[in-house]
Amino acid sequence: MKPPTTATGESSSPDRVELEHPEPRARWRRVRIFSSAARAPRARRPTDIILLALSFVLILLLAIPAPGPTKLDTGITDFVQSLPGLIGWFWEICYDLLIGWALLLLGLALFSKGRRRLFGEEILATSLALGFAMLAGRAAGTEWTLSLKSIGSSGPPPVYLAVRLAMALAVVVTASPHMTKPLRNIGRWVIAFGAAAGIALGATLPIGMFAGFLIGIGSAAIVHLLFGSPGGRLTLEQVAEVLEDLGIAATGLAHAPLQPRGVALVTGATPDGVPLVVKIYGRDAWDGQLLASTWSALLRRGETPHFGNGRLQQVEHEAFVTLLAERGGVPVLPILAAGVGEENDALLVTKRTGISLANAEAVDDEYLRAAWSAVDTLHGLGVAHGQLDRYRVIVREDNSPAIGDFGEASVASSEADRMVDRAQLLVTTALAVGEERAVSAALAVLGKDGLGDVLPYLQPAVLDRATRRAVHDQDWKLDDLRKLAAEAVGTEPPALEKLRRVTWGSIAMVAILGLVAYGIIAAIANVGLQTLVDELKKADPAWVLGALLMSPTIQVAQAFGTIGASIRPVRFLPVLMLEYSIQFIALAVPSSAARVALEVRFFERNGVDPGGAISIGAIDSVCGFVVQIALIIVITLTGLVNLNLSSGSSSSSSSSGSSGGVSLIALAVGLLVVGLVIGLIVPKYRHALRGLIPRLRTGLRAQASASAAALRVLRKPAKLLLIFCGNLASQTLQAIILGICLGAFGYHTSLAGLILVNTFVSLFAGFMPVPGGMGVAEAGYTAGLVALGIPNSVAMSTAILYRLVTFYLPPIWGSFAMRWLRGHQYI
User: Fold this and answer.
1) Contacts 24+ apart (CB under 8 A), 663-668
2) Phi, psi (rounded to 5 degrees) for 393
3) What is the DSSP string of 194-242?
4) b/e string for 548-569 if b means 16 or more Cβ within 10 A?
5) What is the dihedral of CA 319, 321, 326, 332, to 10 degrees?
6) How many other C-beta atoms lie within 10 A of the C-beta of residue 687?
7) Which residue from 597, 585, 604, 637 is spatially nearest to 621, judged by alpha carbons?
């Protein structure tokens, strides 16, 4: 047992109950095999959903280069086989251990009391892995007999895929939630060395080993989703033992339902009748919170995925925020103790001082006003709760409110976070007492202005699933509640705050744009889907990796341009994080709008007034536009590049890929027409285009005086040099990466040609009313490369690869940058 930490300065827990036989229990723990009891509660872990989805997607992607060998396979195999001293018997033993360890886990489950269910699950996972491996191998051209023979074979010829690894991994992963940490670690090392051994012995290629790994993971995930897994969740006896070590004697312990974010709850009481709630952060806690936060960030604007800390750090965070709120005068559930158990499960013990609002029979208006005052006090401390639903708003015995469960609370909260809290509380109280009393209580505490500020956030996006279902069962809807609140304020219901990042309409629009773009490109470039797939298979992994590694350098150059546009000195690292964050939101809104919106907030936090912040973004954008026009003019007038505007390809070596020809002018005109049609058909884009000029005129007039200071950068040669050099370097780096993507398919062209194509397409796609120029940019790059003499299929494959590494993948690290900016309060 690790030393417990108490959450309060004085002891508020019952007297410590000494353990009668601590030494025998400690010796037994040292030889434990299973981390949970045979009948331990099970739950479907959210991580298994992620693992199954990733395995399925990656297996499909591996089908493109399968069965190999690719150049990457050859390089990895040569490296592993050249390791000194690790040959012959060592690799044989490691590869045989895959079977040995799987059999050991099967035996432990079969001959241990109460573990027959686990044995059946291991057998099912093994069968699934074998079946999926056989199917995947057959799809890649491997005969059924070869796949079966590879289970017992430990030598050449290499077989796609590694069936032995898939079956062993399925057993290991299926049993993992049931086993103690030492056995889980041993299993991981066996899998790692076994995979390397299969490559070294020539039993399979790295691509086949990776495919086998995915099959094993996916098969185990299916079993866990079908039957659930304990995930190391403590039994009631283990909870009682940990509580004893924390100095709390508890009786009547009972499991509460597993929380959506993977946190287990146990209820009980002390011998003298003090009710307790034990919150347990186990192995399920981190992955549950990861899935929930990632899903929330994908759906709601202004949020980024947060990956949390360790279990003890999560308990410490909740205890800290709870004590901070309590010290600030917010009624909370008192914390009795916090600590860590034998299996590294972190526990937080709180005192139950009432019942949840969902279970309360009736509350009066005084309670409602007190609840609003408590939340207002919490917001005054700069804290947002984040989950003010009916189960976290408490009714005490004296009919006073309390707030519980600060696990998702944020200390450095934004105004939007606090508005979300208020919207949640308004819905929560409306579910308890009706919409009229709920609105009246909110108006009494917040006033008309305060309640009016909440109205744009009163929408399903701020509610969890349980609350949305509860609202659905009422005879009133959110629109009715919003309308009633607007009438109380004396105004019309305002437009909703754009919280949802993804809607069914946006998904449909992206799908339609993708289909239209592919149809135009394929029709003009005369490239079919099978031709494109065959061409992508030929991509050199080393070149692809090089393009991906170089992609983040584009934002480094852009950061220097942004620094040059700012009249106030700013540090490089925050500006670089800003540029990466723009990549994160560029998938949701057009990139120019994303840059302006994010830069304005960023520079406001750095002491620049709103007009100056807008001017900084405008200066950077205008200078970038000037650089693009200058590059096009210089390269065109100097004759550095000869574009073939009517022929599909001038390369004699690629006549087969260029049949049919392509007209660059026709493609440009076609894309322009498509962009205009989209702008006229889609209401959002149509209204934006119609009101663009008046808004620009009004905005320029309003910001003229405030922008004067920011425009002084244009008088500073050093600043101008930084702006233009940053934008020039950005365009050059993009062209170089485009050339690397082209090199992945074995073709090369001049840097001047690549700069011209990239600059022209970037400029052209920026005018299209399509988020990130999706579809338009791919078509433009295809046409430009064809005009440089690249075969149609290669040009289209290069365009897709280039957009993948410079537009579709950068939001991954952009999400980390966004979280960094929010954590350091730069946005």
Assistant:
1) 663/524, 664/783, 664/784, 664/786, 664/787, 666/524, 667/520, 667/524, 667/779, 667/780, 667/782, 667/783, 668/764, 668/780, 668/783
2) -100, 120
3) HHHHHHHTTSS-HHHHHHHHHHHHHHHHHHHHHH-B-TTPPPHHHHHHH
4) bebbbebbbbbbbbbbbbbbee
5) -70
6) 10
7) 597
Tell whether 788 and 774 lie within a shared domain.
yes
User: Burial letters for 722-740: b for 16+ Cβ neighbours within 10 Å, e otherwise?
Assistant: bbbebbbbbbbbbbbbbbb
Q: Where are any strands of DSSP class E within 376-524? A: 393-395, 401-403
Angle among Cα 491, 496, 501 to the nearest 5 degrees reads 170
How far is Cα 272 from Cα 439, in angstroms, rounded to an integer? Answer: 41
Retrieve residue 416's tokens.
């939007």
Query: CB under 8 Å to 669, separation ≥6 — which residues?
Result: none
Residue 109 amino acid letter: A
The owner of tokens 């299916």 is 222
Kind of pairing, strands 401-403 and 393-395?
Answer: antiparallel
User: Three-state SS string across 135-166, please?
Assistant: HHHHHCCCCHHHHHHHHHCCCCCCCCCCHHHH
317 and 448 co-located in one domain: no
- Name beta bridge partners: 395: 355, 401
DSSP 486-545: HHHHTSPPPPPP--BS--HHHHHHHHHHHHHHHHHHHHHHT--HHHHHHHHHT--HHHHH
Query: DSSP assignment, residue 332?
Result: B
Assess whether 431 and 324 both reside in one domain.
no
Q: What is the mean pLDDT of each run of 10 residues along the chain (827 residues)?
A: 39 34 41 74 76 86 81 79 65 90 92 89 94 90 86 86 92 88 87 90 89 93 88 74 85 72 79 87 53 48 49 83 92 88 77 87 91 94 90 91 89 85 94 93 92 88 84 89 92 69 51 56 54 71 88 90 78 86 68 60 68 66 80 79 53 36 48 59 59 52 46 67 87 92 90 88 68 72 86 86 88 82 73
Domain boundary among 327, 351, 375: 351
Integer Cα distance of 749 and 368 in angstroms:
71
The sheet with strand 346-351 has its strands ordered as 251-255, 264-269, 275-281, 346-351, 335-340
Distance CA 159, CA 149 (A): 9
Q: Before 67, cis peptide (omega within 30)?
A: yes
Task: List Cα–Cα distances, 156 to 46, 149, 460, in angstroms.
Answer: 39, 11, 58
- Kindly state whether residue 633 falls inside one of the protein's structural domains: yes
- Residues 765 and 804 grouped into a single domain: yes
Tokens of 588: 């949701």
Provide the Cα torsion 787, 790, 791, 796; round to 10°. Answer: -80
Say if residue 300 is in the same domain as residue 184.
no
- Describe the crossing of helices 116-139 and 89-111 by its angle, rounded to 10 degrees: 140
**Residue range(s) defining the domain that contains residue 265:** 232-351
Sign of the alpha-carbon dihedral angle for 62, 63, 65, 68: positive
Q: Are 208 and 166 found together in one domain?
A: yes
Give burial (CB, 10 Å; 0-12/13-18/19+) of 152: exposed
Given the structure tokens 């059924």, which residue do they identify? 144
> What is the distance between the alpha carbons of residues 171 and 435, in angstroms, rounded to a whole number?
53
Q: How many CB atoms lie within 10 A of CB 696?
A: 10
| Cα(311)–Cα(290) distance, integer angstroms | 13
Domain end point (choices 489, 513, 545): 489
Helix (H) or strand (E) holding 253: strand 251-255
Output the CA–CA distances (angstroms, integers) from residue 259 to 281, 294, 665, in the order listed.
10, 17, 58
249-257 own/partner pairs: CB under 8 Å, 24+ apart = 249/14, 249/15, 249/17, 250/276, 250/278, 253/278, 255/41
For the chain, what is the domain count? 4
Q: Which two tokens stand for residue 785?
A: 């490369």
**Token duo for residue 438:** 């709920």
User: pTM (2 decimals)?
Assistant: 0.54
Cα 434-436-440 angle, rounded to 5 deg: 120
